[in-house]
Amino acid sequence: MTDTGVQGRERVLAVVICPVHATRAQLEERLAEIEQLAQLAGADVVSVYSLRTDPQGVPLVRGTGARAALRERIGQERCHAVVWSQSLSPREALRWESVLKRRVVDLPELILDGLARHSASAETHILVEMAQLLLLRGRLPRKGPLFSRMGEGVGTQAPGHHLEVTRAGLQTRLHQIRREWKKLDETRALQCQSRSSLPRAVLLGFPNSGKTQLFRRLTGEDVPCSHSPYSTLHTLTRRVAIPAIDPFLVTDTLSFIPGLFAEGLSAFRPTLRWIQSAEVLVLVLDAGSAWVEEHLTEMNEFLKQIGCAEKARVTVFNQMDRVEHPGNLRELARDIQPHVCISARLDREFAGLGAMIHQSYREAMQSLAAGGEEEWP
Fold first, then answer.
1. Residue 157, pLDDT score
2. Which residues contact 109 (CB under 8 A, 6 or more apart)?
3. Mean pLDDT of all residues in 229-249
4. I want to staple 88 with a disulfide (CB 3.0 to 4.6 A). Which of 66, 93, 158, 291 is the partner?
């Protein structure tokens, strides 16, 4: 392994990709996110290469110029890997590794690496390793690995298993972990089928949207709350404790993983079952984020992907204390109903949100009854 510099941490180059119309605030926020995720995966961002794209997502700087600039920056900063701020197809990742002669780690892979290093529960170990193996299977070259993936640096960590990745070795481990995963999935399916008579809502959101803080406020549960991304590593369900509001159950889940490919997403099916079995979805957005509109669009696409686009939902614009231009947010929220604007960190009254969730539940049940269906799918 090459020298990783100060305190043994890897030096990485971050390729931050933004649309050409992105604001300075959006660029800075995306860079801050990639730096946090790199740190979670045991690496330090020592250099940044900003790449703008047209409205269709095509890079404006392409060809030998971009490749030469990246290679020069890698050499100057002695970088051991390159992390991408978006997802790459298997072909793109392999092509960039061949060109740059460095490990290339895209956004979903970087997130999974961080989760692998910090997950404590057996359930999270299984889900994360399953997703990592499925991702790696699509990225292995036909004739041996381009880079050894033995837990040496960012993009190489698996939960408790350091193996030289070849197609045969990967398939063997995938077969082993799939047996454990299947048992877990069956258990979660039974738990979701044996529903309480109480309505169930599930909180969904990007990292640092204040999901767990809101869960604490709704339930009175003293669960750990951190500013570190993906600090919620397991699913937790509790009864809502709001006076004058009929009781219901609320579930906090792992934060949204942007860009995760369809097969990798299937690895998290035991967690997705909580979303699919809930009566009401509560979309929690960081109202102070420069990307709040894009986050809402991505979450809507995600719900379509898992077959939940038609479920009853309440949109929560959280962390209103961070909003600099309320007028812009009001324009975005105007056509989104029902919605509520709050600050889970500062507010003390959540009866309005509780009533909104109950109203969405009642309307969903009435719609199902009118359609002649006996129970929620």
1. 56
2. 132, 135, 155
3. 81
4. 93
Prediction pTM value = 0.85
3-state secondary structure of 51: strand
Q: Which residues contact 273 (CB under 8 A, 6 or more apart)?
A: 185, 188, 189, 192
- Tell me the C-alpha distance between 274 and 56, whole Å: 34
Each residue of 300-311: b (16+ CB within 10 Å) or e? eebbeeeebeeb
**CA distances (Å), 102 to each of 50, 75, 95, 97, 293, in order?**
18, 11, 11, 5, 34
- What are the Cα distances from residue 112, in Å, to 138, 173, 285? 15, 17, 22
CA 179 from centroid of its chain's CA atoms: 25
What is the residue-averaged pLDDT of the chain? 83
Neighbours of 202 (CB within 10 A): 23
**317 in helix, strand or coil?**
strand
The C-alpha atoms of residue 136 and residue 88 are separated, in whole angstroms, by: 12
DSSP β-ladder status, 236-239 and 249-252 = antiparallel
